[in-house]
Amino acid sequence: MLKAAEWIITIIFSMEYIVRIWASPKPWRYIFSFYGIIDFLAIIPDKDVEDNKVMKAVFGIKAGTGKNTNENLLAEAGQHLIDKGAEVIILGCTEIPLAFNPLRVDVPVVSATGVLADRSIQMYNELKTRIKY
């Protein structure tokens, strides 16, 4: 079970990195830049933080644990990433934006779910203007 959770978290953080690349005006340049590589390494929390903060909060959100408990865990995980040098936090898991409070960190926070929802609405509106009913 713990091994599966580790794979899931790895996938989630990989998705976050992909969103960052997608948002970059020059993705290839960003990926292979010194800072792109450092950013990739910075967004990966230590195993202890991943297990005892992020995963505990995700499971707490799914189990209906109090929002404050999960918010505190995620704020601590976010601060850990900032301490490692992260300049932006990308919330890649659908549960995390439910409890993460962006006011508790001093860096920009991007919800991958929000970005995908906004882009989906934009694509729908563009398609709607091309199709006459």
Architecture overview:
With 133 residues, this protein is mostly helical. The protein has one domain: Rossmann fold (3-Layer(aba) Sandwich), CATH 3.40.50. The protein contains 7 helices and 2 strands; from the N terminus they run H-H-H-H-H-E-H-E-H. The protein has a two-stranded parallel sheet with strand order 1-2. Strand 1 (89-91), helix 6 and strand 2 (109-111) form a beta-alpha-beta unit. The N and C termini lie far apart (50 Å).
The count of strands amounts to: 2
Determine the structural class based on helices, strands and strand pairing. mainly alpha
N-end to C-end Cα span: 50 Å
- Give the H and E element order: HHHHHEHEH
In total, how many domains does the architecture comprise?
Answer: 1
CATH class: Alpha Beta
CATH architecture assignment name: 3-Layer(aba) Sandwich
Number of helices: 7
CATH topology annotation:
Rossmann fold
In what order do the strands lie side by side in the largest sheet?
1-2
Mean pLDDT across residues: 81
β-sheet strand percentage: under 5%
Low-confidence stretches: none
Largest sheet: 2 strands, parallel
Cα-atom radius of gyration: 16 Å
Topology:
Blueprint (H helix, E strand, L loop, with lengths): L1 H22 L3 H5 L2 H9 L4 H17 L3 H17 L5 E3 L4 H4 L9 E3 H19 L3
Helix pairs in contact: 4-5
Question: Can you describe this structure in just a few lines?
Answer:
By secondary structure, the protein is mainly alpha-helical. Helix content is 70%, strand content 5%.
